[in-house]
Design a protein that fits this description.
about 375 residues; mainly beta; Immunoglobulin-like; 4-stranded antiparallel sheet; 2 helices
């Protein structure tokens, strides 16, 4: 006998899932073909005086094999609209000779009645915070207006498939998502609630079905768990929660058309700040080693805090006596340097220099230059 039957309302269908047993109630292995029969009981509509469950009417018969099983009951027109009504499903499994141990004793519940409007115009774009998901608001739709001023609470359920991952049987382990440290004025900082199907690459995220006052036609949220470098496919369903009797359940719309998003990091780090310079010579060290004193200019700046920071690039330009640039801007560091400091030893006494610094992230995005710093090495005093 089946003990784990579940029911979920999606659009015009009720999706039914269960585990088909492989052994009889006498613990004997079931041999031959099996058939699953699902029946539906319908509670009388609240407007009727006699509210009771009708007889359990068979609605679906389908071949069954041991293990996880699924089918769907497409509701008749009378159960697809109007107020919500409680449906109760039971299942029995027939063996090849047509014998069964009877209907399951614990029913699975779903709701009849009208469904939420399908999510329309789903769009996905990349931001520094993650994947920005936007859709057409239902606030002014005909379906929303029919519910009156107090509409049932609704959320958006997103199904996300990571196309960058191998099949579920070979799924690699991904480190937990870390905040990017970057911000975007285009993103709404709402983190969806996340659940994951461990048997697949599918992740479910939920967000409020609300639109900002500034743009009531478009609702949106940000998937902050989307990783840069990966490619995702998103679908969305509008979900309404309700309570019938003592049963809490949901009615979901049909899934939206899928959208695919390649998470490519095109967002540069912030420009370094606090650039300071100081000129000096290695005279004290030279006095000990006997080497010729060498002039230098030391640079330092505040470290950037982006977690994907790869390093810094240092640029220099010659300056005239009045401080104006002279000649082209040259990069002094062929590769990004890891620390927020640099010593320029290719300097000449009496020559002025202009320095700027940029930050580079792991995707090779380079920031705007820092504020300029001017410095020169004084002429050596005559002996």
């Amino acid at each position: 006998m089946v003990t784990d039957l579940s029911a979920k309302r999606v659009g015009d269908r009720v999706v039914l899932r269960w585990t088909t047993p492989s052994r009889t109630t006498d613990d004997l292995e079931i041999k031959g073909a099996m058939t699953a029969e699902l029946c539906r009981e319908t509670e009388a509509r609240p407007a009727l005086p006699a509210a009771r469950l009708a007889a359990c009417t068979p609605v679906v018969r389908t071949p069954a094999v041991p293990g996880p099983s699924e089918t769907a009951d497409t509701l008749p027109v009378s159960l697809r609209s109007g107020p919500a009504v409680l449906l109760a499903y039971r299942i029995q499994i027939f063996n090849s000779t047509g014998h069964s141990s009877g209907n399951s004793t614990a029913p699975a519940y779903a709701a009849a009645g009208s469904t939420p409007a399908a999510v329309a115009s789903l769009q996905a774009t990349v931001s520094e915070q993650g994947a920005v998901l936007e859709w057409k608001s239902e606030r002014n739709s005909a379906a929303a207006l029919e519910t009156g001023p107090v509409a049932p609470p609704q959320v958006i359920d997103f199904s996300r498939i990571d196309l960058s991952l191998p099949p579920a049987t070979e799924k690699r382990v991904r480190p937990a998502a870390q905040p990017s440290g970057k911000t975007s004025s285009k993103s709404r900082p709402v983190q969806p609630k996340k659940t994951q199907d461990e048997a697949s690459n599918e992740v479910h995220l939920r967000a409020p079905d609300t639109a900002p006052a500034a743009n009531p036609e478009r609702a949106g949220t940000v998937d902050t768990t989307a990783a840069m470098g990966d490619t995702y496919t998103y679908t969305a369903q509008r979900v309404r929660a309700l309570t019938l009797g003592n049963h809490q359940m949901e009615i979901a719309s049909e899934p939206s058309a899928p959208v695919t998003l390649a998470m490519r990091d095109t967002f540069p780090p912030k420009p370094p700040t606090g650039l300071a310079t100081i000129a000096g010579t290695t005279a004290p060290e030279a006095a000990v080693t006997g080497a010729k004193p060498q002039p230098y200019i030391d640079l330092s700046w505040e470290p950037n805090t982006e977690p994907d920071l790869a390093g810094y690039r240092v640029y220099r330009q010659l300056a005239r006596a009045d401080g104006t640039p002279q000649g082209p801007l040259a990069r002094l560091t062929p590769l990004p340097i890891a620390v927020p400091a640099y010593r320029d030893v290719a300097v000449r006494p009496g020559q002025g220099y202009i320095y700027t610094v940029t930050a580079v992230d792991a995707a090779s995005n380079e920031s705007a230059p820092s504020a300029k710093a001017h410095e020169s090495v004084p002429e050596a005093a005559p002996e």
